[in-house]
Amino acid sequence: MTETSTLSPTSLPPYDFGVLRELRQRRELTIDEVSRRSGVSTAVISKLERNRCTAELETLYRLARVFGLTATDLLGLAESSSSHHAKAETYTSGDFHFERVDFANARCFHARAEAGSKLSRPDVHHNDNEICWVLSGRIRVELPRETHLLGAGEAVQFDAVQEHLYEVLEPSEFVLLHLRKDKRF
Q1: pLDDT at 120
Q2: Residues in Cβ contact with 130 at an 8 Å cutoff, skipping those fewer than 6 apart
């Protein structure tokens, strides 16, 4: 058996529908029961579970409904077994020193700054939720209607579209996560 870690991303199959077997077994369903509930033949389900065929969108929709998912959710599960590798980019913004890695749905920052440093850059945000987690030191996070004083081990989450300001109260190390929200419309 070849280990996934030794394969290049382009040599991996784009989707692994073995996830159907996992979903089915977690719910203690047989292939016959899934077939009856979805209207998809047992032969097609069996072949999909073994990655011996591809599926039409209508088939994915029908199978997904059996598990309370959307076709998009099922496709995402089938794709998510692939890992994504990123290399950190190091940069400075004002008095803040960052390392950043980017993924399709998340941007992760490791930050360090000295007391008195301030940063406000809502222009870099998209439709994100932002999480600030303080690893050491103390910082103040100012939002339009509230202020949070955070020490080591404390975190706050907010809608990153809001104006916000980070002020470092003592030398600090912290993590910022920008997590893409699902489309609102």
Answers
A1: 87
A2: 157, 158, 159, 160, 164, 176, 177, 178, 179
